[in-house]
Queue: 4 jobs
Job 1
Amino acid sequence: MAKRARNNALPPEPRELIVKIDGYEQTYYISEHGLDGRATSDEALIDVQGRIIAISKKLKQHLNERLDVSFACATSYSENERTPVSDKPFLLPMNLRKDHRSFMTYLPAAAFWSIPEMIDAGRLTHIEARFSPPQYGSGNLVSVYLMPESKCQALIQERADLAVQSAI
């Protein structure tokens, strides 16, 4: 029986996009679990709306399209524990479909609660996301970088492999 050849190919380079923040909305939800009320959890969301101003050339059909980004923070409270348990940060998939583009990430509480103030003050104007090449419109999110205009311009200039909106 013949041995299968090992696939020694390097993983594909992540794709990336940069979004200019247009606005955001905040929501908060809290609930009890079970009828005894001994466990409670909450979740806060910041839903950011923006436009894709730069994207990997292989995905240029999404350039200038809207992208929705959801930042979340969740905490669980239990009667048996003295301190609340915060969920650990994690990244959910990037979705790039013809009619909808979005991603979501859970953040630590301190980072999460500082985002609205930084957007309002103009210190955060853009979001860069890196993700695995999408399959069937979805790719694994690898990193998220929130930045001001000055960092965005420098980042775009150093990345020759991005399709860029003509007037940023």
Note: The CA atoms of residues 60 and 162 lie 8 Å apart.
Job 2
Amino acid sequence: MKQWIWIALGGFTLAGCSDKEDQITSLTFDPAGSVNYSFKVSTVTTEQASWGPLTDTLSLNFSLRTLEKDTSGDKLLFRIDKLEIGRDSFNYSKGVTINNVRQDMKAFYNRTDSIADAMTGDSLKIILDRNGALVRMEGYDSLAKRVAQKMACTPSEVKNTLSDYISETAIRDVFLRLFCYLPSGMLIKNGSWVNNTVYKSLAPIKSSNMITIDSVMKNEIVLDVRSEISAGTEGDYYLSGKGKTMIVADKRTGIPKSLKTVEKIEVKLSNGSRNQIKMIDVNVSSQDF
């Protein structure tokens, strides 16, 4: 029997910390069966262009619920429900080329927002492993057909528009980010371990993460994550930078209560380079049902 989890739109509550307490020996993804976890993920990216600062804000809201226990213990079946995407871009004055057609950036984002709004409340199915990593996603083609019918457009346009947000590759990156800290083995209080991840939704970006236990409380563990970020080949990186993340996670479930990341990245271009700052804020609240 597999474990079903429903994912629906929800908000976040930041968990507080207390004095150091119990030693922890393990940390795995094990959501409780009678709890609804509401996630809110916000990403703000700022960079400097020749015509001024660019700011792009992306939000993704969903909730997580366990419906059945998985007796094998290695994979969990979920449902992403009531999806919602929000986006706000500032000072993107230049156009963009889509399918060899030059489009005004404002018109492009208005169309993206309309398709995202038509998708709100729809659903997908996913399978995650015990490290919170995506194994498989189902239902994207059907979702695209439903949204296309609402928008009087083609499923291909819907998939192209939403590919950076809810394609299988994009959803895989979301869960890699949410659970980048989960170890593969045992933990020792005040110890550290390394997790290497590759985000693929925009371009392959490597992140080597050194995770250190900052403190352990009765029900929570606080983690300090330092990341080395790169894209390209060794000696010829076109993107490089560093990241710092602080995480408060539930000791029993492995689910983050809060996750705050700041990444400082340099992107090399043909005519120079551009500095980018990315701030990611994840908050999670839980409620019995």
Note: The first strand starts at residue 5 and ends at 7.
Job 3
Amino acid sequence: MKQKLFISIELAKLMFLSGLLVFFVSLYATDAFGTRNVFLMETSLSPHQVYQNDNSLPHLHRGDLLHLETDYSDSDGEASIRVLNHRGQILGYVPKSSTNIPFALLDQDVHLKAVVRSIDKTKGSFDKVKISIFQVL
């Protein structure tokens, strides 16, 4: 005996409207350059690993693009997120308290980027460099 697929009118309308919503969001998410940055969070670099040698700090400026990558080599068995400059030098790590969202996205191969928001050489290592993290669409 064949079973018929029954969809109510309300469910069909909801599916149609959600499809339209996804379509219009995808149109909005691409601009003339083909990418859009969605702000996720702001954070400081982790204090225990920031600037192992301070000679990379003078080459870092507000607005510089930074790269994020997962690091599975932690001694405590937890993965962390490395922050690298354009030369591939490790500048520091995203603090463990801030890694939930970025780590989940990086783990799913979602493209993220970080940008230097501010640099204050007079502050302690934790507050010296603040970064903003974006998802690239």
Note: The CA atoms of residues 61 and 75 lie 31 Å apart.
Job 4
Amino acid sequence: MRKTYKVIPLFVLSVLCASTAFAASSPTGLWGTPTPISNHPNLFWNQSEINQLRQMILVDQSPQHLVDAYNTHHKGKMAVTPPGNYHSLTTAQQNQNYSQPNVAAAISYMIEPTTAKAQAIKNALLAYDGLVVKGGGIEDGYSAFATTLMYDLVYNDPVMSAADKSAMRAHFNQAAGINNFLDNDDGDGKIFNKEGGKRVEGYINFWTLRASASVLYALCSGNQSRVNFWLDSGWPHDDFVVDGNETGNRF
């Protein structure tokens, strides 16, 4: 299923979010077995779809609104390297100054790839890898959406060495475990709502972003167990809850 990701004015990003429709006893593998991506690009678009987009935007120049959106928001954009004090910035600063521009840069590279764009993306990815992993969601300027997209699209470019790819897979593997907030312990019981028989944390939109980030990380991690945790049909495991309370430290 693909949903519109609002900070990206051009393309539809498929943000996979976990459903609360399955009970803890749901059998695993009911819909098959999702696996980490091994044939890049394949996170949001595969190579065939990318070729179609290039044909529409660069050759056919139709539909016009797609061409205009690309030219306005993505054409010529270069990736931005996050600074060492990235985590001292506000979520808005992280998102507006780094995550959004880097998604735009990834799409620019996807449609019109150049070595300079690829190198800038690599530099940004390795800089993110050098930061403390926070989970890629609301606490991290939604960086998961930028880093995984950049990685998936630049994966086959010659600028990315085997060591670079290995480092990023390790980064994503660690990040995919940060938001494992599903737990049997409901704390003081004050932060949960009843939705469809499941106990859901009060700020469900925040948790949805965290879960979405974790899905992307898992798919790029190379770790089957991470993918199983976030995408297996038995999700959401025992309960859809988090330890602590709304003002406490969840991480």
Note: The longest helix spans residues 91-111.
